[in-house]
Amino acid sequence: MTKTNKAFAYITNTAREERKVARVLSGWSADHSPSVVDIGEIDHTTRERLEHLQAHLYSSCTGLKDSRLNVSSKVCSSLTAHLVRYYPHVKALAPEAPIVMRVEECMAAAGITTADMLAWSVVLREAATAPALEHERNEKKPESCKGNEHLLAVIEELIASNRAMAARLTVVEAALLKPKATQETTEVAQTQDMSDHEPKPKRRKKKVTDLSTTWYEWYTRIPRVWDSADRHKKSESRHIVAFMKLFLDAGFVLNPKATNYKDDVLCVGQ
């Protein structure tokens, strides 16, 4: 086998083997084709309510005239399903996080309660874990165990190798960081001198705000930005929009009922 063929085989086979390992680590079989969780897994009535929530969540990235700027409906459906599925965990970890506040604003606009979200989260979690349970049943069959046992053995070997390497690194770092009596006095003196002449830390610069994005969000986002609970964002967006209006000498006209309303907003903001 030539060097070129070896390199080509390595490039093509490595990705395939990594996908198999990723499936096994995710609870799937090595040759299984994982299915993407979306809101289509739920009953029709619930799906209609989640589609209403989805329309509020992604109102700024759908319905545009340029198809390249629109997000696929399948992608929105999958993102909505994952938001609902992990909503209780994110809410427990960071109740004031921007993603939690955004989801709760859209929940209020869509008339969805927290109890509904928790119930749907349980349903989507069960739908996502069903393939893993099926994989456990298939492992009991002797025909499917042979290939999986080999992959699991490889994974366990890699884990053991990583642990041994981590232990060696710990020993090396401990040997390098062991202080000497002659160096301690010098380091203390140098630290004191550096602390006396150390410059004051620079103030962290504020993140640059994209004016056209704020303009587009102000006129298209649902619920509206001026109804948001975040006072700082609401005030900042109001000032940015007012500032941009100063450069529109001829004024502008936006018709919210027009079919190309979002495209008009995008064009004026740019």
From TrEMBL:
Name used for this protein in its record: Uncharacterized protein
Bias kind Low complexity: ranges: 182-192
Region described as Disordered: spans on this chain: 182-206
